[in-house]
Design brief:
Blueprint: E1 2-7, H1 14-17, E2 21-25, E3 30-35, E4 38-44, H2 49-62, E5 67-76, E6 86-92, E7 98-101, E8 104-107, E9 126-127, H3 132-135, H4 139-143, E10 147-152, H5 160-169, E11 174-176, H6 179-188, E12 193-202, H7 213-229
Parallel strand pairs: 1-4, 1-5, 5-12, 6-10, 10-11
Antiparallel strand pairs: 2-3, 3-4, 5-11, 6-9, 6-12, 7-8
Helix pairs in contact: 2-6
């Protein structure tokens, strides 16, 4: 099986990489690894949507994969998702893509600039219904995870007022900085994909003393090992 593993930073998936055998270096962003019969291209995009869209799009044009997996940490709006919870993101969007109209916000769909059902969008959302095509027997492992909707933001929410505004636009369970860009690239290329996130903190007024990065990364990498070893 050939897997494209995408992460914003090496830090988030370093425990997994330590267990894999590196077999090559493709470019500055990409290294090649092996586990059993699985060939794993690891793409470190850097933080944010622009980097992710650019490098994932380029990689999908250059190589053929059975599945692409985006892995990383996330903040949770949903209070039922404590730090350390690993989730499967099945729906994503970019709620800040649009224009301010005095005190109101208009999305690109409301502005008529983008058709909300033009591929890869469905009703203005990026909905992942491709994963089953690439799972090959690990469906039960993935299906055991909670499924969540997500938003992708250029600026992670850490202010009560901005959190309130973003919640008015989207009832999503989590927030990341790359997920929608990853989905856009994969869905546009008809590439089976998964977005797996581990909760490091609640989305609230910024207070890093309440975060648990170590637990989030530990649980994320344990799950990644489980699906790759499967």
């Amino acid at each position: 099986m050939r897997i494209l593993l995408v992460a914003a930073t090496e830090f988030e998936i370093r425990p997994l990489l330590a267990k894999l055998s590196q077999v090559g270096v493709q470019c500055e962003q990409q290294n090649q690894y092996q586990l059993y019969n699985n060939a794993i291209d690891v793409l470190i995009t850097g933080v944010g949507m622009v980097n992710t869209a650019c490098f994932v799009g380029r990689q999908l044009a250059l190589g053929k994969y059975d599945i692409a997996v985006n892995a990383g940490i996330a903040g949770a709006f949903d209070k039922s998702l404590p730090p350390g919870t690993v989730v499967n993101v099945t729906e994503d969007c970019i709620p800040e893509l649009g224009a301010e109209d005095h005190d109101n916000f208009l999305s690109v769909f409301e502005l008529g600039l983008t058709d909300p059902n033009a591929p890869p969008y469905t009703n203005g959302k990026l909905i992942n219904n491709t994963a089953d095509q690439g799972l090959r027997g690990i469906n039960e492992v993935v299906m055991a995870l909670p499924t969540v909707s997500a938003i992708t933001s250029n600026t992670i929410s850490g202010n009560i007022n901005s959190i309130s505004r973003i919640r008015q636009r989207s009832p999503a369970g989590i927030e990341t900085m790359e997920g929608a860009a990853f989905f856009f690239a994969c869905l546009s290329a008809n590439m089976p994909c998964l977005q797996i996130r581990s909760i490091s903190n609640r989305v609230e007024e910024r207070d890093k003393s309440k975060w648990n990065l170590d637990l989030a990364i530990q649980n994320l990498n344990a799950f990644l090992w489980e699906i790759i070893a499967s």
